[in-house]
Specification:
Elements (H helix, E strand, L loop, with lengths): L3 E4 L6 E3 L11 H7 L8 H9 L4 H12 L1 H12 L5 E4 L3 H10 L3 E6 L6 H7 L1 H6 L2 E4 H4 L6 H11 L6 E5 L2 H9 L3 E4 L3 H10 L14
Parallel strand pairs: 1-4, 1-6, 4-5, 6-7
Antiparallel strand pairs: 2-3
Helix pairs in contact: 3-4
Length: 214
């Protein structure tokens, strides 16, 4: 039986679009290069360091030394405009959280996010975070998904039993890490898919469908 659900934040509860930090500031082809899947500009590598607890103030000089002034300017712009990346909550997820709470289910979050930018995230979505029973932030704690230590910390901090906990994340690596840590875990594809899983496993009631009157 599932009696607690831990959600990832970016890509599950919040629509995070990193390109938006740089749009209008740099040519589109340079933005494409900066966020390329092969990470040839090192954004994801340094973002991972940031998620692990190193603040941008301590990262950007190192990034610029390694990648040069042009890309350093882009990384500085990204750090200065993180709020632009937070588009809004994922449609339907706040009602889903409310339904979980109404069913007596504990609702938590475990996010890979920076220490210095957490206040931006928290203050951007006060209604969302007020609905949650607690949040573990990687950059504050110095541990990040998919490392087992992140899941162990969340379970201990929240005071929940991993055998009765569902973890929901849009990253297959994080889902695999959660399963290795003893949690039930599913990869997030959509609000509907997640709601269907929860109702199909008896965690929340199935939604009633009322046909339109003819």
């Amino acid at each position: 039986m599932i009696d607690n659900v831990i959600f990832d934040v970016c890509g599950v509860l919040v629509d995070w679009q990193p390109r938006r930090a740089l749009e209008g500031l740099f040519p589109p082809d340079q933005i494409d290069e900066f966020f390329a899947d092969d990470d040839r500009c090192g954004f994801m590598y340094f973002d991972d360091l940031h998620d692990g607890g190193t603040d941008y103030a301590d990262l950007i000089d190192e990034y610029e030394r390694e990648y040069g002034a042009r890309l350093g300017l882009m990384m500085r712009a990204y750090a200065a405009h993180v709020e632009r990346t937070l588009v809004g909550t994922i449609p339907g997820m706040m009602p889903l959280i409310e339904d979980l709470r109404s069913s007596g289910i504990g609702v938590w979050a475990l996010t890979n996010w920076g220490h210095d930018t957490w206040p931006i995230m928290r203050d951007r979505f006060p209604d969302l975070f007020c609905l949650l029973d607690g949040v573990v932030v990687s950059g504050i704690e110095g541990v990040r998904k998919p490392d087992r230590t992140a899941f162990d910390l969340a379970v201990a901090r929240f005071g929940i039993q991993r055998a009765h906990t569902l973890f929901v994340d849009d990253s297959s690596y994080n889902v695999a890490g959660a399963r290795a840590a003893g949690l039930t875990a599913i990869r997030f594809d959509s609000t509907e898919q997640t709601r269907n899983w929860l109702s199909g496993h008896g965690v929340i009631p199935r939604a009633e469908h009322h046909p339109s009157a003819n």
